[in-house]
Write a structure and sequence with these properties.
Helix content of chain B: over 70%
Structural class of chain A: alpha+beta
CATH superfamily of the largest domain in chain B: Transmembrane di-heme cytochromes, Chain C
Number of domains of chain A: 2
Helix content of chain A: 40-55%
Strand order of the largest sheet of chain B: 1-2
Shape of chain A: elongated
Low-confidence stretches of chain B: none
CATH architecture of the largest domain in chain B: Up-down Bundle
Distance between the termini of chain A: 83 Å
Strand content of chain B: under 5%
CATH topology of the largest domain in chain B: Fumarate Reductase Cytochrome B subunit
Number of domains of chain B: 2
Strand content of chain A: 15-25%
Shape of chain B: elongated
Strand order of the largest sheet of chain A: 8-1-10-9
Oligomer: heterodimer
Chain lengths: 267, 230
């Protein structure tokens, strides 16, 4: 199976938020289907764990040169997903299509994924972690992800990685030509060593990366230090065991030699 | 003249003995969260737990149980540490872990003395603790403080931002790795034949032969003599 990719194009987006509504509706239906919640309750309660695509509104500049930007906050399905690596119960898996998915059955809600994610994506509710699953089951059955399915302007589109990148670069090139502003496909190339490249990319004017809160160096420095400490700790522990055994053997030999010398001197 | 003298008080011995149990529980229950290399612990615990509880995932059942053990041990250790810390704070300035002499030269001299004792088996004169023990004790106290604070921050993580909680998780793991290495060295040297008198004093009687102190801990002997204790 080829790797799947999603793309959000900021230019044709009309801020109708149908993608977010579609995402939440899809996830409520999933919870109903899996008997986690009844129909009435899922219709009445806010249930933040069902919103895997959320708006992050921010205002920039000072009046009259101010503007408001609504960024999209979602899982990027990182190439080197730190959440997947850190999960102690292997509840986070990568589907054949590349989607990073939380299996709620083994999840113990330890928040390790929350701490490892540099995009602040997973949320813990009722002792389980939730985040976008890329509608992997829809995709594996030939459907589009819910957010893509409901987008009226094709600002969200998906497909195989090759198809999406081809279309994304084509659009970015067109926008650059028409507007005179350089447009890039954020996440198509390696973002940094911590997350690698992304399977949810964004077409955006390069100058608007900050406005759309797209981090050019997403990381959790302390988690990288933690990983280093683990490796260094393993080497250190092995060195201590070898050193201790070596010292004990040396010490016993030296002791015997010393006792023999003392006996000879006294004898 | 008494042949032995009390070198470890009842409170110190009581705390150390139980600290061993709780730290062992916390290490065993924490390792699988730190690294997948220790998943076998969670699986070992998870098999009976998942059978008894009827849960499907062995690893999750084991990890949940180990988390319960980790939290319980942490809480009991905290309760146990309160009287010990209060007791130790009354004589903060006289702790054996503080250096007898400060400075680079004193550190080099102290290290050279340890080298002579453990490698050349020459007669040297230590204080109650040698420089290695002092560094160990300082390291352990520092790591324990970081582990304690970051551990409770993780338990009550809703009070902090995700980023702060992330720092707490990192600090908890890093200080544990350091503590683990220190403990390995400590256990080796504590059970080393040359330290059997100290081992016996800590785990059995609390007392040490004065002749042994005079022979191996000359600086400490002089201090005791000055205080009129021997």
């Amino acid at each position: 199976m080829s790797v799947n990719m999603k793309c959000y194009d900021t230019t044709p987006c009309i801020r109708c938020f149908a993608c977010m509504v579609g995402c939440s509706a899809e996830n409520r239906l999933r919870l109903q289907r899996d008997d986690y919640i009844g129909v009435e309750k899922s219709d009445q309660e806010k249930m933040p764990q069902t919103y895997h695509l959320t708006p992050k509104r921010k205002e920039f500049g000072t009046f009259p040169d101010s503007r408001q930007v609504t960024a999209f906050h979602h899982c990027n399905h990182c190439e080197k997903a730190p959440c997947l690596d850190i999960c102690p119960v292997d509840a986070i898996i990568r589907r054949p299509g590349g989607e990073v998915v939380i299996d709620h059955e083994p999840c113990i809600g330890c928040s390790s994924c929350v701490d490892a994610c540099p995009f602040d994506v997973p949320v813990i509710t009722d002792g389980k972690a939730y985040k976008c699953h890329g509608c992997y089951d829809r995709v594996e059955n030939g459907l589009k992800p819910s957010c893509v399915n409901v987008c009226p302007t094709e600002a969200m589109f998906s497909g195989t990685k090759e198809e999406v990148l081809k279309e994304a670069y084509k659009r970015a090139s067109l926008y650059t030509k028409v507007t005179g502003k350089e447009h890039i496909v954020y996440g198509a190339d390696k973002v940094n060593d911590y997350v690698g490249s992304l399977l949810w990319v964004t077409i955006i004017p390069k100058e608007d990366l900050d406005a759309y809160q797209l981090d050019t160096d997403p990381e959790r420095t302390v988690m990288e230090a933690r990983n280093f400490a683990k490796s260094a700790g393993a080497v250190g522990a092995a060195a201590i065991v070898v050193g201790s055994v070596g010292h004990l053997i040396y010490w016993i030999g030296k002791r015997k030699e010393k006792v023999q010398n003392e006996e000879q001197n006294h004898g | 003249m008494a042949k032995t003298i009390k070198v470890y008080g009842n409170m110190e011995r009581w705390f150390h003995s139980h600290l061993v149990h709780f730290v062992a529980f916390m290490i065993i229950s924490g390792l699988p969260v730190l690294s997948h290399s220790f998943d076998f612990i969670a699986y070992g615990v998870g098999i009976p737990v998942s059978t008894l509880m009827g849960s499907q995932d062995i690893l999750s059942a084991g990890m949940s149980f180990l988390r319960f053990i980790h939290y319980t041990s942490a809480f009991l250790l905290t309760l146990m540490a309160i009287p010990f810390v209060l007791y130790k704070l009354t004589n903060f300035t006289t702790w054996s872990m503080w250096p007898d002499k400060w400075g680079i030269k004193a550190t080099i001299d102290g290290t050279a003395e340890m080298w002579k004792f453990y490698m050349k088996q020459e007669h040297v004169s230590f204080g109650k603790m040698n420089i290695g023990q002092k560094f160990f004790a300082q390291g352990v106290v520092l790591c324990m403080i970081v582990i304690f604070i970051s551990g409770y921050m993780l338990i009550f993580r809703d009070m902090f931002s995700v980023e702060v909680a992330s720092y707490a998780r990192g600090a908890h793991a890093i200080s544990f790795v350091l503590l683990g290495m220190l403990l390995m060295i400590h256990i080796y040297l504590a059970t080393h034949p040359t330290n059997k008198n100290s081992y016996k004093a800590m785990f059995k009687t609390g007392e040490m032969d004065i002749d042994f102190i005079k022979d191996h801990h000359g600086i400490y002997y002089d201090k005791l003599k000055k205080e009129g204790k021997v």
